[in-house]
Design the sequence.
C-alpha cells in the first residue's frame, strides 16, 4: 500500500527524518482525544525514542501529554508529514504511524502546557494542525476509505 504524503518538502531546506507515532483514542461518546499546545492541535503522540515501538511511543506520549493510560492496538495507518517546528527551529520529515488505542485509566500528565480536549469528528478535523492527523481521524471515522 502506498503511504500518503502531506505537506510540502522545500528543496532548499534540510529535513530531519523523525519516526513518530500518534494515538487514535475515542471516548464513549465517540469523540476524539486532541491535544492543544502553543504550537497547535495534534493527536496524542510524538517522536519515537531509539528502540521504541509505535505502541510504546503512544503509551509514553499520551501519558506525558494527557495523563492517559492506554492499551494500544495495532498500527491502523501510516503517513509522511513535512513540517517546520518553530519551537525546535527545524524542518522535519515525520514518518507517522497512527495507532488505535483504548483509554483504560488516567494519571497526572507531566506536560502542563498541554490541554486535552474531546472533539467530535468534524471538530477534530477542523482543529488538527497537521493534514496527516486530519486524514487519520477522517479515515478512522469511516469518512475516507
Sequence:
Amino acid at each position: 500500500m502506498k503511504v500518503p504524503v502531506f505537506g510540502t518538502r522545500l528543496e532548499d531546506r534540510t529535513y530531519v527524518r523523525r519516526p513518530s507515532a500518534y494515538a487514535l483514542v475515542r471516548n464513549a461518546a465517540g469523540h476524539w482525544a486532541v491535544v492543544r499546545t502553543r504550537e497547535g492541535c495534534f493527536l496524542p503522540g510524538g517522536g519515537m525514542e531509539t528502540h521504541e515501538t509505535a505502541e510504546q511511543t503512544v503509551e509514553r506520549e499520551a501519558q506525558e501529554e494527557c495523563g492517559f493510560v492506554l492499551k494500544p492496538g495495532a498500527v491502523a495507518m501510516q503517513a509522511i508529514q513535512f513540517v517546520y517546528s518553530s519551537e525546535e527551529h527545524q524542518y522535519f520529515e515525520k514518518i507517522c504511524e497512527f495507532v488505535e488505542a483504548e483509554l483504560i485509566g488516567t494519571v497526572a500528565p507531566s506536560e502542563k502546557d498541554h490541554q486535552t480536549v474531546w472533539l467530535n469528528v468534524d471538530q477534530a478535523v477542523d482543529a488538527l494542525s497537521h493534514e496527516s492527523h486530519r486524514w487519520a481521524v477522517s479515515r478512522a471515522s469511516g469518512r475516507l476509505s
